[in-house]
Amino acid sequence: MKKTMMLILAAVLTLALAACGKNSGGSAEGGDQSSANTNSELTGSILATGSSALQPLVEEASKTFMDKNKGITVQVQGGGSGTGLTQVAGGQADIGNSDVFASEKLDAAQAKDLVDHQVAVVGMAAVVNPKVNIDNLTKQQLVDIFTGKVTNWKELGGPDQKIQIVNRPASSGTRATFEKYALGMKTEDLQGSIQEDSSGTVKKLIAETPGAIGYLALSYIDDSVKAVKYEGVAPTEDNVANGTYPIWAYEHMYTKGEPKPEVKAFLDYMTSDEVQNGAVKDLGYIPVSKMQVVRDVDGNIKKK
Amino acid sequence: MARSTERQQAKPHLVEEWVGRIYTFLCILLLIVTIFSMVYFVASKGLSTFFVNKVNIADFFTGVKWSPDGVPPLFGALPFIFGSFSTSILAALIAAPMGICASLFMVEIAPKFGRKYLQPVIELLAGIPSVVYGFVGLSVIVPFFRNVFPGQGLGIAAGSVVLAVMILPTITTITTDALAALPSGLKEGSYALGSTRWQTIYRIVLPTTLPALLTGVVLGIARAFGEALAVQMVIGNAPHIPHSLFESTSTLTSAITLSMGNTAMGSAQNNALWTLALILLLMTFVFVFIVRWLERRSKI
Amino acid sequence: MKAKTADKIATAAIVVVAGLIIAILVGMLGFILVRGLGHISFHFLTSAPETIRKGGGIGPQLFNSLFLLVLTMVITIPLGLGAGIYMSEYAKPNKLTDFIRLVVEVLSSFPSIVVGLFGLLVIVNLFGFGFSLFSGALALTVFNLPLMVRITEQGLKSVPREQKEASLALGISKWKTITSVMLPYALPVILTGTILAAGRVFGEAAALLFTAGMSSPRLDFTDWNPLSPVSPLNPFRPAETLAVHIWKVNSEGLAPDASEIAAGASAVLIITVLLFNLAARWLGRLVYRKFTATK
């Protein structure tokens, strides 16, 4: 008995040591490669915090950025858009990541110091359980569903199945976007509706629950759920870019006042072609440069 | 001469003694400072809902409508309070009989087998992280309830089943200790009078250890009350008092985890979440006082 | 006769419930291990996580969990021992001691989410430690400390009176008696308790979401200077632990194999907690034997 436990302990220790050894090898190689094109003497550390929807993109970009700028460390934190905006306004973070405009979360006095950097566009679509044979929903139909006026798919020409709403919490940036651009109004939380903050859980619940409807960022949509058209327009990247599909939002990276040089370097890198056509696309966001329209905080759309 | 050397020798001892005394006292002081600052900070945030944002206290505790960014914003926390109490009490109702049976098994029926197999099993249950409980609940219990009962599967029922398994170790450990501490004379007397084992358990063991058993149950409820991640994954999170056990609802903890990160600190909505945290904090005190009251009764 | 039937039925019921509990645990462990074990490989345990591609691992998270545990214990053990010694040896039975006991009790039953929020407000924002391992360790200390106090107290209470009095009668100071006579005797109890408490630290997630953060910056495992920001030993860097990683992958994971990663990480977490339990028993017995009969 004693011996087996010793063996287990020894095995664990070996594994842990091996882990360190292996990783060190990997990163050393990476270092050699990129030291060739080191281009700046900027040093310092950057803390970006906020939106969990934006976090994967910033993390991915920060990895390549740090390979290029050895002196700079970028730390990316989740925590939610509210946390990000509070921390950047309070000076604890250098960059606040947010799914929404700062003025929608903070009061005017705090928001006025913040400088907006739009780094990507995220499209969203209403998604339903794959067994619901509905391909298109109009704005009015969505409003009826999310306000509880329509409670059965039968009334919309679908199967005789109760509609199960999978919503986001009222504080969520994703919900704010969906309500603003798809429904055109704020909705109340209905009795019996499910609320989940995380896209993964929303997807899992929609895929499993009969008659479920919710909404997801385009990057999360896969075969387990069905994305429906909005007013006959399919939720595709092109339709978002040319302005025909309205449910989308900017991803913002806020700084307080004008950024420090190393922060500016990072933000410039975020909007460079390398990231916009690389990580942004890989992660299912839409590059800002590709957008043919611009939209302000009040939702007014202009052709570029 | 002799006296002075004695004093010199005694001195380092004295210094050491005082250093030790002061060090241990500082450690205690730290504990006290921590708890006071926790209460102070959480209360200062939580009370600003009432003093800064001018929300009516009575409305907060009795209102059933939670729409913090509606016009006007409404903060009715009753659904969360109801959700927390109903899930944790229901969880205790499921877990208490199981826990007590497990300890009876370990103490009265099969001490050897019980100590060797059941106890490690229960300690292991205590060690499983709550994230994993939530994950299992979402992948096993929710689909099961969805298929068997009307509704979406998420809700109080799923939440309390997950919590019941989580608090089972707490209840079992405490009740086992209580049963084992019972003087054997009491039991032997009962057996000597010709009682069966069940009669002894039912008439002697359970009544005498009742306050201790209840202590275990209350501590279990307290743990269930404060559990956050596992519950949030299976409860559905609609801010309403549900019509059935299988309808989506919220607890205090799930409301906090769901929205804390999305709201800016200092906003009315954020403060309201801190008020929920303050309620959790105060409930901890209530639970501890109930436990103390029960413990005093069991000593008599 | 009726009493005997009742006895049999009741016994059967109790045995069935005990069996049910074992079945629940075996079912849960089986569910997690069967789904997760297949995914555990050397590569999985050692490589860094991937955001969008397949084949990410949990190397940094595993390291963070262990390092955070060590850090927490380094803070908790001296404080907990000190406070425990005070409670069991120096405290006089009066109102103040009663009050301290209440404090310890309340502190140990605070919901972890409240501790996490307190950490966010005070440690992360007010003291300015930011999302870091150190903030996480302090938050974990808050609920580990009362446990430690209780364990120390129990350990010291288990020391035979004669042993303590014999030492005092020899003219040895009280502090010396505690540290060199009583603590060694109490060591097995304290050690076992500490390791079991450590197992709970390992699985904690709710409090860490708000204090240690949800991201793991790139680590350079060749840089062992604790002051360097990429060094794994730097306590002031943000760190995602294994339990938090499971939460994150489950909820926001974009990688195509997110559910396998979550399952694999859950299995690793459970195996580690299992190892902690076994280690606690084994060490406790070993030390006990060493300090008592077989000297």
From TrEMBL, chain A:
Keyword Membrane on entry: yes
Role: Part of the ABC transporter complex PstSACB involved in phosphate import.
Subunit: The complex is composed of two ATP-binding proteins (PstB), two transmembrane proteins (PstC and PstA) and a solute-binding protein (PstS).
Pfam families (alphabetical): PBP_like_2
Family to which the UniProt record says this protein belongs: Belongs to the PstS family.
Subcellular localization: Cell membrane
Ranges annotated as spanning the membrane: none
Cleaved signal peptide residues: 1-18
Domain PBP: residue ranges: 40-274
Keywords: Cell membrane, Lipoprotein, Membrane, Palmitate, Phosphate transport, Signal, Transport
Protein name: Phosphate-binding protein
Membrane topology field: Lipid-anchor
SUPFAM superfamilies referenced in this protein's UniProt entry, alphabetically: Periplasmic binding protein-like II
Coiled-coil ranges from the UniProt annotation: none
TrEMBL record, chain B:
Membrane in keyword set: yes
Topological category with respect to the lipid bilayer: Multi-pass membrane protein
UniProt KW keywords: Cell membrane, Membrane, Phosphate transport, Transmembrane, Transmembrane helix, Transport
Residue stretches making up the ABC transmembrane type-1 domain: 81-291
Main location: membrane
UniProt keyword Cell division present: no
Stretches assigned to coiled coil: none
InterPro entries in the cross-refs: MetI-like, MetI-like_sf, Phosphate_PstC, Phosphate_Transport_Permease
Compartment(s) of residence: Cell membrane
Pfam families (UniProt xref): BPD_transp_1
TM region positions: 21-43, 80-109, 121-145, 157-180, 201-225, 272-294
Family: Belongs to the binding-protein-dependent transport system permease family. CysTW subfamily.
Protein task: Part of the binding-protein-dependent transport system for phosphate; probably responsible for the translocation of the substrate across the membrane.
NCBIfam families for the chain: phosphate_pstC
Protein name: Phosphate transport system permease protein
Organism (species): Paenibacillus sediminis
Upper lineage: Bacteria, Bacillati, Bacillota, Bacilli, Bacillales
UniProtKB/TrEMBL annotation, chain C:
Domain ABC transmembrane type-1 stretches: 62-280
Topology of this chain in the membrane: Multi-pass membrane protein
Major subcellular site: membrane
Listed transmembrane segments: 12-34, 66-87, 99-123, 129-149, 182-202, 261-280
InterPro entries from the UniProt entry: MetI-like, MetI-like_sf, Phosphate_PstA
Gene3D superfamilies: MetI-like
PROSITE patterns per UniProt: ABC_TM1 (PS50928)
Sorted UniProt keywords: Cell membrane, Membrane, Transmembrane, Transmembrane helix, Transport
Subcellular location: Cell membrane
Family the entry assigns: Belongs to the binding-protein-dependent transport system permease family. CysTW subfamily.
Protein name (database record): Phosphate transport system permease protein PstA
Organism: Paenibacillus sediminis
